[in-house]
Design brief:
Length: 593
């Protein structure tokens, strides 16, 4: 398709479109000869009639849009974080085979792979290969792919992968990635000074060693871990290094994904998914060098949709009185903003941190670093085996081990209550008030941490306008604390509003509950990642949405989906997804709103 074309061919089917939440890469169509139209000066690719913007997503509502029907796509992947990037890599013709020199593999798996060594991993029976494998993920294909990408990694070893990657352009499925920010997703929004929970090599994607990339950048991996800023930069570089940038689009927000019935007349599109949204377009530059931006609508059709949005869009709430008061926050970044404004220091009233996950621990560390007093309330016992701190090696994660020590050694010890007071614990007026945080309110252990006090097995009962918080123990005893700010860090939910008013609840393992990574992921077929409760065929999900919160394992979802799409091609059910068929049939779309 030439950049000067004024029309979209009716019924065009783009093989893959990945709509990402955090991508500033290009929105580009490739021609039959795989000639890519690239944006100039980092601007969005949006309008045929604008010289520097050769392409935009069509919508009949836009004055410059083609009047023909929207694109019909074969699959839509929503997510441009590591999940979407890895799937884009597999769909671009990069194909994994068992290397003839492979030695570091599970003996059972090795024997299965050598039964048909001429076949790529995408052509193998994944269910058969997964039999008998065990690992630290509940998703079998994730365990399979991890054992091949990072053999014996659980033992701290860094063996060479037994996979040999071949670039086979004839296998490429032309695809498009749509999103709002740079490739890497939420990693670009994370604090750059913290260290990742995972080891550095667990964060890498196929074909580019993270440590090699960091050495080229003259950086050192500290303690075998990296900062989120380094990981975000690596993912962005990966897209460029692997020549995937032509598959990414900028400034797009998906607003609706609905099932579209097929037409009865001859030549009408078959049943598929309709994807609509907005695309940001920069307008004329102002005198001060800034540009006015506008959003234009787009619409397209997709035979398949892949959800890979992550689960950190909507912070979880406690649902208690006063939670909407201005001093109550629900993200770590709000704490950072308060620190940058100079609102917190050692003379401040304590900050209350609610939650016992890693983000809550990071908030405690940040406040403690300023010598700001901290109250820390959480529902679990400090000895609960489900507490994340009880699962991390002490030597590898010293900062989180320190937090666990603080939680254990600096517990609030309430004074015994009189009998008549104990009978009225449910009455807020009977709550006891805590004196200002000092050494007198903490344990007398010589290793105690001044300015910190934990409240294990406590919940928040209410926030009051006078910046007082009512905490309630498991036994019903209430304590009132005076605070400067509250940080409720108890997890998050994905923004799946484009799926309807229920925010995608019906797709979960428990349809009545909100979708979450740990408690209620989207239910998918374990070997194809197809969504079980979708409104129609052709919907996939991957990454945190299906319970994979670690980059190490979410790559398995990319393998499962790419394998299933390849199987559809071999069986003739996915249309012409090859590069040669691109001009007449553009097949797959990927999403991340």
């Amino acid at each position: 398709m030439d950049r000067h074309d004024k029309e979209i061919i009716p019924g065009d089917i783009l093989p893959v479109v990945i709509i990402g939440k955090k991508t500033h890469a290009q929105l580009i169509l490739c021609s039959k000869k795989r000639t890519f139209l690239k944006e100039k000066a980092g601007r969005c690719v949006e309008n045929y009639d604008t010289a520097q913007l050769p392409f935009f997503l069509p919508s009949p509502k836009h004055p410059n849009a083609p009047k023909k029907q929207p694109f019909t796509l074969s699959a839509a992947l929503q997510g441009n974080g590591p999940s979407g990037i890895c799937l884009s890599y597999l769909l671009s013709g990069y194909t994994p085979y068992l290397s003839p020199e492979a030695s570091r593999t599970n003996p059972l798996l090795n024997s299965k792979l050598r039964e048909q060594p001429h076949l790529s991993l995408l052509e193998q029976d994944l269910e058969y290969l997964c039999e008998g494998l065990e690992g630290r993920s509940s998703n079998p294909v994730a365990v399979l792919f991890d054992s091949l990408l990072l053999p014996d990694s659980d033992f701290g070893l860094d063996h060479t992968s037994p996979l040999a990657w071949r670039y086979e352009p004839e296998r490429a499925v032309p695809h498009l990635v749509l999103g709002k920010g740079p490739p890497g997703g939420a990693w670009h929004a994370m604090e750059g000074s913290m260290l990742t929970l995972s080891l550095a090599n667990w964060m890498e994607l196929p074909g580019l060693k993270l440590k090699d990339w960091m050495r080229e950048k003259r950086r050192n991996v500290r303690n075998d871990r990296a900062t989120p800023a380094e990981i975000a930069s690596y993912y962005q570089h990966y897209v460029s290094q692997m020549s995937l940038e032509q598959n990414f689009a900028c400034g797009t927000t998906v607003t609706s994904v609905t099932r579209q019935p097929g037409g009865d007349r001859e030549g009408a599109p078959s049943p598929c998914w309709r994807v609509t949204g907005l695309q940001r377009r920069e307008g004329e530059e102002l005198g001060d060098g800034s540009a006015v931006s506008e959003e234009v609508p787009f619409s397209m059709l997709a035979h398949n949709v892949v959800l890979a949005t992550g689960t950190h869009d909507i912070p979880a709430r406690l649902g208690v009185e006063g939670e909407s008061l201005p001093y109550v926050c629900h993200s770590f970044w709000e704490l950072e903003a308060a620190i940058s404004r100079g609102e917190l220091d050692k003379s401040s009233d304590p900050v209350l941190v609610v939650g016992a996950g890693l983000t809550a621990a990071d908030a405690v560390l940040a406040a403690h670093h300023l010598n700001t007093p901290v109250y820390h309330a959480f529902r679990r016992s400090v000895n609960d085996p489900g507490l994340i701190f009880n699962q991390l090696p002490k030597l590898l994660y010293p900062e989180y081990h320190k937090i666990h020590q603080m939680m254990t050694q600096q517990q609030y010890q309430p004074d015994p209550l009189p009998q008549d007071h104990a009978q009225n614990l449910q009455d807020p007026s009977s709550s006891s008030s805590l004196p200002p945080l000092s050494s007198s309110t903490t344990s007398s252990s010589p290793s105690s941490y001044p300015g910190y006090l934990s409240f294990p097995r406590y919940r928040v009962a209410a926030f009051r306008p006078d910046r007082k918080c009512v905490l309630e123990s498991d036994s019903g005893q209430r304590t009132v604390v005076q605070i400067s700010k509250a940080l409720v860090l108890i997890g998050a939910h994905p923004n799946l509003s484009f799926l309807g008013d229920d925010n995608g609840r019906t797709l979960g393992v428990y349809p009545e509950e909100p979708i979450t990574c740990r408690r209620n992921p989207i239910e998918v077929d374990p070997f194809t990642n197809k969504v079980v409760a979708a409104d129609g065929p052709g919907m996939y999900a991957m990454g945190p949405l299906v319970g994979e919160n670690f980059v190490r394992f979410l790559k398995g979802g990319a393998l499962a989906i790419a394998s299933d799409l390849a199987k559809s091609l071999r069986e003739g059910g996915g249309g012409d997804l090859t590069a040669d068929g691109f001009v007449d049939r553009k097949e797959v779309c990927g999403l991340d709103s």
